[in-house]
Specification:
- 2 copies of one chain form a homodimer.
- Chain A has 102 residues and is an alpha+beta fold.
- The first copy, chain A, has a single domain, classed as Orthogonal Bundle (Arc Repressor Mutant, subunit A).
- Helix content of chain A is 65%, strand content 18%.
- Chain A is built from 4 helices and 3 strands, in the order H-E-H-H-E-E-H.
- In chain A, strands 1-3-2 form a 3-stranded antiparallel beta sheet.
- In chain A, helix 1 packs across helix 4.
- The first copy, chain A, starts with a helix and ends with a helix.
- The structure holds a DNA duplex (30 and 30 nucleotides).
Chain lengths: 102, 102
DNA sequence: TTTTTGATATCGCATCCCGATATTATAAAG
DNA sequence: CTTTATAATATCGGGATGCGATATCAAAAA
């Protein structure tokens, strides 16, 4: 199956996953790459990090730098606006699911 | 809520809707615009038509021209490959839904 | 003939995706 | 104490994509 098409189809799914995890608890970039792989989404750092930056600059996520074993990691957590977007995404995802299931 | 982000989040949803409807029965472009509006997705022709062309050139949809009241309409119906992609989308949508619900 | 309407097509700019590559910092190896 | 390895994050180039605005095209209505 053409990967080109599939990826684009699911980019929104991936971003919703990101918001969802960011709401559960703060995460850092390379953890998210592995998490997404567990869901069958292969994502290179060159794709993920710009997405995180964008979501942060748009106010959906915010960064908290933590010092972990001497190394600085950037943890992303969800903002109030991010929560709103996630809620809207849930509604839309539910509606989509209702329509296409069977 | 920022429309820029929201739109991108849901573009995949929209394409899945398109595949779903194309499987139920052939549709034509401007009908789909209204259908999507019914789901809360505003989509201009300048966005939809290139997407239909792309999905057709990638083999997810195929075109059948019908003469309706003297005018030619292009009806899109799903292909076998399109069905495969739709099935994959259903699986992924279900998985997403399971994870983010409640 | 002119205007309107419905459907489809295209243009241009800004944005975005993503593989490849680079950067930074610490730990481990020699 | 250099060198190498490893983990995490950042950036670059270019090709694709989204989308508002605008155009085309054909038939019906005025």
């Amino acid at each position: 199956m053409q990967e080109q098409i599939i990826r684009k189809l699911f980019l929104g799914f991936i971003k919703i996953h990101i918001l969802h995890h960011a709401k559960k608890e703060p995460f850092f970039g390379s953890w998210m790459i592995e998490e997404l792989q567990g869901h069958g989404y292969d994502m290179s750092p060159g794709t993920l990090y710009p997405i995180l930056h964008k979501m942060e600059s748009k106010g959906l996520l915010e960064i908290e730098e933590k010092n972990v074993e001497g190394k600085i990691r950037k943890y992303y957590k969800i903002t109030n606006q991010g929560i709103e977007v996630l809620e809207e995404a849930k509604r839309k995802a539910f509606e989509l699911f209702k329509e296409i299931k069977d």
